[in-house]
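Lab notes, practical 5.
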Amino acid sequence: MENLATFPRLNEAAPAFNAKTTHGDRTLADYKGKWLILFSHPADFTPVCTTEFIGFQKHAETFRGMNCELLGLSIDSLYSHLAWTQNIQEKFGVEISFPIIEDIKMDVARAYGMVHPGAADTQAVRATF
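Output from the prediction step:
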């Protein structure tokens, strides 16, 4: 049976990562001394994921005011993320100001337990940390 990581637990260190994002490379250490909301979405260009991102963006300044950063993730490519955020800006007038992780190999998703046992190798679950 495949050994999958579980969700991070209280009083345990969050898994470190080094990831390519829409705003350049990011590591967990980049957020040291701040609160971080790391959230995953199943796919770019879907109605639910789009409304979630618009909702997070509408409150991004409030989060920043509380020393909290936003970081999205999906297994879609960096190019898909860039096209999607451009589409959101064109269709809804909302510019997504926070980075989105490209996790094609699902390294971050697996480290955070976002992949359910028996799930397809092409989808991370919706999760928020």
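Observations recorded by the TA: The chain has one domain: 18-128. The CA atoms of residues 115 and 124 lie 5 Å apart.
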